[in-house]
């Protein structure tokens, strides 16, 4: 890759992410050409090192030994020093801050302000290591605002204290998510700050320091509101650390102890109290009155909800019909109002004339082979997270029999998709010859490509933003979603528990295109359903003499289905090409 390209860093980062797919964040950390492999002990470290080197070998990437270091207990990376004890600023950078040049008295006022802003920004890179950073840097921060530039005793003192604070920056401990966190917020007249701590062996260990300056309106808050703002802001800043864990908030403002229990709050304190009471898992027992449907309706004048919704989607519809990639047609903010004349004129002026548009091609018919010879696969979702932690459904459909296989998964990673394809499709129905999918990341990832290469499958990717190319699976996704809606509860947390029953119902229902059920096309008989057991009867089975007759009947059945599908496809092609 040549030097100087503006897209070179992102392209190289993409290469590293693809080469180390599946190992990033679990076995190693990657930033550009820096790869840090970590482990709890030597054995684990060597195992992960072997995985990373194997990935580099598969990706045909070479390493220069002069730039490699192995078996280190302390690592410098991105201006930090990481060790077993914790993380701290790079001493070389701290030394550069300590040697930061003083102010040039002969410079103009604009250069002086730029010098102060540069110094404060330089120090802010390590502000998470400095307690009370806002308080120490406040005299210099105020100088960034417009006004008379002064360099008196408070400014010189702040400059010296900020240097000393960076040189003596605290070491931050690694987070231990098996233990509880403590949040220590505080506020003053001009700023708020907080410390995230964990108690280990009876000693409080800081994990992160945060602080900021209050804006003009926030400085007018009462002291109680400022202290509450410090709590709310600290919880938001520490959310990646404390989400899903128990925390203890320790504040020196006793009036906030009743924040979560007081019945009547007003203004911003009430909003902050609700913000801190984030919804958890749904309760099974209480809250029945709040879930009762309203017995009456209030009719308001003006626009109805369907009309408002229709107006909101006009812009997206016009853009989609004008150009899939937007092209030269862009609707400006504020253009779409009730002034439809202006909207129509702008659209006609910017839209590409019909005679200059590229004509659509003719419909290509997919040739149907034997059962499970051609498979279509797609991902449906995301859905609300179920009780089992699932959010998406991966669906596979056979082009001949219309047999559907579906499984609920927690996420659409390439490893999960490849595991579904092998365990559900290949193991149950054999190796297909062709697999049709869209260009989702889970289908184009290295793991999926390797599985398809090992199985020697012909993988056919559809055109982006063109769902009709994989229409069979897309139509099946719509059918599954409609069927699932009939059974889920109000919390929408049990949809994956009905997926197997819905799939069975579909596979035992007669298909209009084949005039047979998928179950009949696969097994040569109809499925026994609960109604047959209650009626003490069974499905009509053909009375055959032997295996040869059964095979002959199945061949004839499938040949008739192929002819039926060919007629349906030809009719669809005629309508599409017209």
From TrEMBL:
SUPFAM superfamilies: DNA/RNA polymerases, Ribonuclease H-like
Listed Gene3D superfamilies: 3.10.20.370, 3.30.70.270, Ribonuclease H-like superfamily/Ribonuclease H
Coiled coil segments of this chain: none
Keywords of this entry: Endonuclease, Hydrolase, Nuclease, Nucleotidyltransferase, RNA-directed DNA polymerase, Transferase
Example GO BP: DNA integration
Molecular-function GO terms, alphabetical: endonuclease activity; hydrolase activity; nucleic acid binding; RNA-directed DNA polymerase activity
A GO cellular component annotation in the UniProt record: DNA polymerase complex
Any Pfam family matching the protein: RT_RNaseH
Keyword Nucleotidyltransferase: yes
Ranges for domain Integrase catalytic: 367-526
Stated name of the protein: Integrase catalytic domain-containing protein
């Amino acid at each position: 890759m040549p030097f100087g390209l503006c897209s070179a860093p992102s392209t190289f980062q993409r290469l590293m992410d693809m080469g180390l797919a599946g190992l990033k964040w679990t076995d190693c950390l990657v930033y550009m050409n820096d790869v840090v492999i970590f482990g709890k002990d030597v054995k684990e470290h060597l195992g992960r090192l072997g995985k990373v080197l194997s990935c580099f070998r598969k990706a045909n990437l070479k390493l220069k030994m002069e730039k490699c270091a192995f078996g280190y207990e302390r690592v410098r990376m991105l201006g930090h020093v990481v060790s077993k004890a914790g993380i701290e600023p790079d001493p070389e950078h701290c030394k550069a801050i300590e040697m930061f040049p003083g102010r040039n008295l002969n410079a103009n006022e604009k250069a002086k302000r730029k010098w102060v802003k540069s110094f404060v920004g330089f120090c802010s890179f390590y502000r998470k290591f400095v307690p009370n950073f806002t308080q120490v840097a406040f005299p210099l921060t105020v100088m960034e605002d417009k006004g008379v530039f002064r360099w008196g005793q408070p400014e010189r003192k702040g400059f010296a204290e900020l240097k000393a604070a960076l040189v003596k920056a605290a070491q931050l401990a690694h987070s231990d998510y098996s233990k509880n966190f403590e949040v220590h917020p505080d506020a003053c007249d001009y700023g708020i700050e907080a410390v995230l701590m964990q108690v280990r062996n009876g000693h409080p260990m800081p994990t992160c320091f945060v602080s900021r300056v209050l804006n003009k309106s926030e400085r007018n808050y009462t002291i109680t509101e400022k202290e509450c703002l410090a709590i709310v802001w600290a919880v938001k800043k520490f959310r990646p650390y404390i989400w899903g864990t128990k925390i203890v908030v320790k504040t020196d403002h006793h009036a906030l102890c009743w924040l979560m229990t007081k019945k009547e709050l007003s203004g911003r304190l009430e909003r902050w109290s609700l913000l801190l009471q984030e919804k958890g898992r749904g309760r099974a027992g209480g809250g029945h009155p709040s879930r009762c449907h309203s017995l009456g309706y209030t009719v308001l004048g003006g626009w109805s909800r369907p009309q408002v919704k229709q107006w909101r989607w006009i812009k997206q519809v016009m853009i989609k019909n004008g150009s899939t990639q937007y092209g030269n047609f862009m609707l400006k903010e504020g253009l779409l109002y009730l002034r439809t004349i202006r909207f129509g004129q702008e659209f006609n002026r910017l839209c590409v004339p019909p005679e200059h548009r590229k004509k659509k091609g003719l419909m290509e018919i997919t040739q149907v082979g034997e059962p499970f010879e051609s498979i279509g696969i797609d991902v449906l979702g995301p859905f609300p997270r179920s009780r089992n932690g699932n959010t998406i459904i991966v669906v596979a459909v056979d082009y001949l029999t219309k047999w559907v296989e579906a499984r609920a998964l927690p996420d659409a990673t390439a490893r999960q998709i490849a595991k579904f394809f092998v365990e559900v499709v290949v193991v149950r129905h054999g190796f297909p010859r062709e697999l049709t999918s869209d260009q989702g990341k889970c289908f184009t990832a290295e793991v999926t490509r390797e599985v398809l290469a090992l199985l020697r499958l012909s993988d056919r990717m559809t055109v982006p933003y063109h769902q009709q190319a994989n229409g069979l699976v897309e139509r099946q996704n719509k059918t599954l979603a409609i069927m699932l809606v009939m059974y889920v509860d109000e919390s929408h947390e049990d949809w994956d528990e009905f997926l197997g029953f819905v799939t069975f119902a579909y596979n035992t229902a007669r298909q209009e295109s084949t005039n047979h059920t998928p179950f009949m096309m696969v097994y040569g008989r109809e499925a026994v359903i609960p109604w047959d057991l209650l009626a003490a009867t069974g499905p009509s089975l053909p009375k055959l003499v032997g295996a040869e007759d059964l095979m002959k009947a199945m061949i004839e059945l499938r040949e008739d289905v192929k002819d039926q599908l060919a007629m349906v496809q030809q009719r669809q092609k005629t309508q599409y090409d017209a």
